[in-house]
Amino acid sequence: MSFVKSKLKAARDALGKKDYEAAREAASQVLDYETDNYNATVFLALSLLELGEHEKSEQAYRRATGTNPENPLAWQGLSKYYERREEWDKYADTLLHLIELYRSLGDAVRCAESWQKLLDLRRERGTRLQKVIEAMSLLLPQSPVYVALSSLPAPDLTNPTSTSTLPAQIAIHHSLPHIEELVRLVETEEEDTIKKEVEKRRTRLGAPSLEVLKDEVAREVSGRSRLPSLYEEILNHVNTSDDLRRSVDAKMLRHMQRYLYAIPDTPDFSHEKSKVLARVDELLKGAIILRIPDELAWTMYLESTDCETIAEYDREIVRQFIDIFPSSPVSSSLKGYFLYMNISLSDAEDDDEDVPPSKPEDEDPFDMILNAYATIPHSNIATRVLSELYVTEVDYQNAMKAAESGLELLNRYEKSTGRKLPRVRIGYKVILATSLVHLFPPKHHKRALRIIDDVLSQSADNVHCLMGRAFILEQARKWGGAATLFARVDELLPDDLSIGIRAREENAWCRCQIDDVAEGLAILQSIASILQTVGDSAAGDAARCLWRIGQCYWRDQREEGYRYFILSLKSDSNYAPAFTSLGIYYAGYASPLDPNRASKCFQKAFELDPREAEAARRLAEGFAEEREWDLVEVVARRTIEGEGGMDAGMTGANAVASVRYLPTNAWAWKALGAVELHRRNYPPAIEAFQIALRAEPEDAISWLRLGECYSRSGRHVAAVKALERAQELDPDDWISLYLIGDVKRQMGNYYDAINTFESILVTRPTDAGVLVSLGQAYLDQGRLEVSEGFQVRAEQSFSTCISVGLKAIEASAGFRGVVWKTIGDAIFALSARSTYTEEETVRNVLKDVVAILPLENDCLSGVFVPTVLSEDIPLTGLKVLEVALAAYSYRTSLGQSESASTTGSAWFDLGIALHAWVIKSSGPPTAQGKIISFLSQALREDPGNSLYWMGMGDAYFLSNAKSAQHAYIKAIELDSKNVTAWTSLGLLYLHHNDIDLANEALYRAQTLDPDYAVAWIGQAIVATRNGHNVEAAAMFEHAIGLTPNVPEGDLEYSSQSFRRYRLSGHKAEWSTYTLLPAFFALDRYCGRRPDDATGLHLYALVCESLGQYETAANKLMRTIAILEAAYEVSEDPIVERQYTIANSNLARVRLALRDFEGATQSFESALGLLPEDDKPETKVLRVQAHFGCGIASFLQGDLGAALANFEAAMENARDDKTLRGQVTVLLAQTMWATQDTEFKENSKAQLLECITSDPDNLTAINTLAGMGVLTGDESLVDAALSELLALPLEQRYERDPGRNVDYLLTQYHLGQVRDPSHDMRGRQPVTGSKQQDAKKAGSVMQNALFVEPSRFEARASLATLMLQERKPESALALLSGSKEAPIEKQATLLRLRAVALSRDNTEAAIREIQRAVMLAPSDVRCWQTLALVRSYIQNL
Q1: Are 901 and 943 spatial neighbours (Cβ–Cβ below 8 Å)?
Q2: What is the per-residue pLDDT for 296?
């Protein structure tokens, strides 16, 4: 033991001398001897700490605390260690342990010192207020530490340095500031916690709304809050002042209020909520009893009072509230209420009568309430006051809004507090029901009844609801039920001079209505006497009662009734129903009748009360008879406003539902609709008629007007439905049927429109209006048929239109201008045709028109002679146009009584028709001046019509470019979206070669209307001028597919297509896929322009290229006839040349038809017409004619004539190497066709000579090579192709664009392989030299494919060879590279694939060949391949 003591002493001394190494050695020696020595362990830990061995030092301290946990020495060292190491959390834990240790040891000083260190640490180093709060809470009375520190002496504030525990002493002996600080910290900490927690939870997936989230967090925080206990500490503290106590009470109330509002109003939390509510009620009662000036407490107390009206509040409480909080908005609201209601706030028993509170001189009670509510719109008290105020003021619309707002606030209050206020809810519902009953009755009665039933189920004798139900029954004319309810109210309030006497009056009135007039009249008279004694306050009620007495007498004693009406007005000169009754008396029963006085009475009644529907209706009828439509509108609109207008007094969310309410005065809506229809304001007119039809759904006239509004506003489908409904309701009304027809005409359903009009004419055959509409329908139908290409149907429609127009003229002279417009338009449309299918019909209707036209025509004098429709002269479009001109001219003489726009239309039509006549007939020079004059007159009549300016531009198009441009630009200024004007301007620029401006104008036209064909045609011409032929072709193709079609587009498209076909070298695929659209386009064009020689000629050439020789011959003969007639008139050399070319082409077609004699005649005719000159075109035509004659003679067996013609052809072509080469080739082919050996040899010699003189003549080379292939003469083939094969590949392909050389070589080698004994369905295997020839053919094809791998023909040829050699796999591999072949090649590709697959995959083969047949059903090879594949399947 002496060793241990000595070493411990040595260690202590070493520590005192700061020799920490020696101290460590000494302590270590002790611990080696005695491992659990507490002091040695502490000395070791301290020395290690000073030596910097921190981990070992901490371990040593921990061992010491474990050895003797009750000894504070090690804990002191450990706290020093953590302080030095700045490990603050562990330092705080150590201090807490020391506090508890010193408390248990009874060492109050050291305990206080440790607490002060802990508090300083939490304040300086803490990151959360919660830690400071925990430290400060150790000194609360509930804490064990507080008991230990209570032994500390009271602080000597005069000598603060005399003790080390002054803060603790102050906190113990002067604890109120300490608790107040703690409260502030807890309040701050809870607010921060709520804010942070809400922000954190808002980011969670599926988080509730912000309000719900705030309540949820507030409930969690408030539920575990320490604030209530801290507030109690302050309240119970002996040093708490009154002001502090009031402040803490207010904080307690607000804290509990927030907690209460945050608790959900659900069964799971009902116990917790009721407990908190009880605590809140205690606080409120305490505040009221002690008259604590906390406005929130007083307001909450008043809001928790369950009473139906504000008047039922405890008046003493209200008075105290007003006295304590005189400037509060709630006080202003309550004070204004009791002043307005004239209710005293004193409950003194000795007061004989209520004395209201003093009224400020500068403010009205009504304004006080409104101003207060504007400040606190979410106050339950202010809302209740306002709703009662409005219902007292009979402002039912605002009362309803206030009551609805109050119910919403009440729901929120009950949900927040968990307190139910059934009487408050009844009060709100009574106000809401009363407002709904009297707000524009009976629109809201259905909703009011639901509320009244709910109130009466809880309070059966609720007077206001009984009155409301009775008023609803009274409005519904259920007099018995209403009388019973009014009698019940009279029993409940027998002496009441307000509600009670009103109920008695209404009961008597109901009795009068159910034939109990005597008793009812007696009661009314007694009530009237009572009301007359009340004074001015009951003047209106007395007037009403007297008027009702007058109504009772009116049934059989009109003069007595009249007397009471006068008495009613004497009682109240502003009682409107009395004026209405007087007006009825003056209008129908006075002697004598006095309509002026009646009108004044009605006006006065309507001015006083717009709900006086009878007065309003009679006023409106009077104004309508006088055609005062503005006054009719005023009356109708005010009547509508009187019944609630469009929204029936509802706004916001209820406004949508209100439009479903039935209008009370349907006639007002009808009148308003008629006025709006007259003014062309169609949407409001539609709305008005729709509302009127809700009240009177069986009113046919309203349906008719509604359909008319729909029609004029462009809503045609709705118009038809409305008009059909009108027709169902009134089948005898032909007007609805007429409007249906007119709507269908506007919709473009002309067939149904015509049938409808004709059905009306069955019963009204001479109705001019129906005839005019029928004629217009036929005209529109004809125009549609023209645009769709149905020329014959259009001709019939136009003829019928003219006939109907003539009938209209016979039926009535009132529509002459309109009828002649329709007739003229129909004739003008007919003039677009050159021939007529039903010529006799057209001629007859035109004769009828000419017969009623005047013989003299001043407008067109000097321009053309009036037409004569002779039977022996064919009817042409020009003749028909002259009739149209006469009709238009006659129409201009009818324009004196018509409007400026109609007169302008007449002059415009005449100018346009004359312009068309000049173009067709090349009229006299004076005609152009007439055209300009007519169009100028049209513009003078209506200068704002863009169509007239466009007509002026068309008239100036060729003669005056500047004027035309000005006219088009003016039309665009008037209508910037006029696509026709932009297109015409673009074409004008194009005609004068201003390509850029033309392109810009036409592009604008395309933008405005992408389906306008003329703009596309113009753009295509611009593209052609710019050299963009591909784009131009695409535009033309697009243009001909648009509707309506433009014939000139068809012609230009076909012309360009045929030109491309000729430049392509007459390839077979071009005939099928390029010329077929041109064929159909030209067929359509010739149907619309049957006398156009250019179109017919081009059509014939296209038919010839497609192999349609018969059609080509017919069209050429028609062309020749037209050209011959034109030449006889004009003797134009251009027409003569066209005639010659047509004969030459006809001869060629006849030659193809094997009509050799006809071909010879045509060729000879062409030769006879050709001039004797050396022009290239003439030479070609002459050579063609001689050669054609030669072929015809040769095929007829006249060899001598044939040779003579051939020699003549050669002679004419001698100077032209190209032409001579072509003739030589054709001559050689002709001689070869004779199959005569001598001729064949001669043909070879001719070709060899031609090749020698013209080595670039590829046609001759190919022909000679073909002869060598057919005869198997390899030397001849080599002689023909040797020079061409020796050329470089690029030059060879340049000379041979059709790749004919490769084809001939292939066919030559294959010809060596084929065995004539085998047919085309199979090939025998080849051997020897034949196999070498097959390889040569394959080599030629492979080289061709290698050079041009994208060329489908080369790939298809090689695949065909592979199939012939029984190599389907190779064929499929080749064809797989052609999957993206063009559509015209797809049929060939599928056909070859089907053959390749037929041996191994029959299903795929059938599928491929079926697709090929679908793509090209006219290709015989596809059908042959299908048969071949099926035969393979059958053989399998």
Answers
A1: no
A2: 92
Predicted confidence at residue 1382, as pLDDT, reads 67
For residue 357, whether the previous peptide bond is cis, meaning omega lies within 30 degrees of 0, is: no
Q: Return the H-helix or E-strand segment holding 1208.
A: helix 1199-1212
Instruction: Judge whether 287 and 247 are in contact, CB under 8 Å.
Output: no
> Is the model's pLDDT at 1314 over the cut of 60?
no
Helical segments of 895-925, H only:
900-921
The three-class DSSP label of residue 707 is: helix
**Around 823, how many Cα atoms within 13 Å sit in the side-chain half-sphere?**
33
Give the CA distances from residue 65 to residues 33, 77, 110, in Å, rounded to whole numbers and listed in that order: 20, 10, 18
Rounded to whole angstroms, the Cα distance separating 1170 from 23 reads 144
Please say whether the dihedral angle defined by the alpha carbons of residues 301, 307, 308 and 314, taken in this order, is positive or negative. Answer: negative
Long-range CB contact pairs, 922-930, < 8 A, 24+: 923/863, 923/864, 924/862, 924/863, 924/864, 926/862, 926/863, 927/863, 928/955, 928/959, 930/859, 930/860, 930/863
Please tell me the number of Cα atoms within 13 Å of 629 on its side-chain side.
Answer: 9
Pick the residue with more confidence: 170 or 1435?
A: 170
Residue 351 clears pLDDT 50, i.e. is over it: no
CA dist., res. 510 & res. 598, Å (int): 28
The per-residue pLDDT for range 480-495, each reduced to its tens digit, is 999 999 999 999 998 8
Q: Are 544 and 504 in contact (CB under 8 A)?
A: no
Peptide bond into 1044 cis (omega under 30): yes
CB half-sphere exposure, 536, CA atoms < 13 A:
1
Contacts of 381 (CB under 8 A, 6+ apart): 299, 302, 303, 310, 330, 333, 334
1413-1417: which pairs have CB atoms within 8 A and are 24 or more residues apart?
Answer: 1415/1383, 1415/1386, 1415/1387, 1415/1390, 1416/1387
Instruction: Give the number of other Cβ atoms within 10 Å of residue 874's Cβ.
Output: 11
Q: Which three-class secondary structure string do you get for 51-71? A: HCCHHHHHHHHHHHHHHCCCC
Using 50, 70 and 90 to split pLDDT, how confident is the model at 1073?
A: low
Burial 1396-1431 (b: 16+ CB within 10 A, else e): bbbeeebeebbebbebbbebbeebeebeebbebbee
Q: Given pLDDT bands bounded at 50, 70 and 90, which one contains residue 659?
A: very low
Q: Helix (H, G, I), strand (E, B), or coil: what is residue 1409?
A: helix
CB burial readout 1144-1167, b (16+ within 10 A) else e = bbbbbbbbeeebbebbbbbbbbbb
DSSP string of 364-393, one letter each residue? -HHHHHHHHHHH-TT-HHHHHHHHHHHHHT
Q: Which residue in 540, 474, 551, 544 sits closest to 517, CA to CA?
A: 551
Write the pLDDT tens digit of every residue in 1294-1310: 666 667 766 776 766 67
pTM above 0.70, yes or no: no
Question: Within its chain, how far is the Cα of 1199 from the centroid?
Answer: 80
Angle of helix 396-417 relative to helix 380-392, nearest 10 degrees? 160
The 3-state secondary structure of 538-571 reads: HHHHHHHHHHHHHHHHHCCCHHHHHHHHHHHHHH
Provide mean pLDDT across the span 1334-1358: 76
The DSSP string of 1143-1200 is HHHHHHHHHHTT-HHHHHHHHHHHHHHS-S---HHHHHHHHHHHHHHHHHHHHHT-HH
**C-beta separation of 758 from 798 below 8 A:** no
Residue-averaged pLDDT of the chain: 84
pLDDT band with cut points at 50, 70 and 90 for residue 1332: low
Count of H-run helices and E-run strands, the chain:
74, 0
Mean pLDDT of 697-712: 92
Query: Which residue intervals of 19-165 are DSSP H helices?
Result: 20-33, 38-51, 54-67, 72-85, 88-105, 108-125, 129-137, 144-149
Q: Is the pLDDT of residue 1201 over 60?
A: yes
117 has a pLDDT exceeding 50: yes
The DSSP-derived string for 819-853 is HHHHHHHHHHHHTT-SS-TTHHHHHHHHHHHHHHS
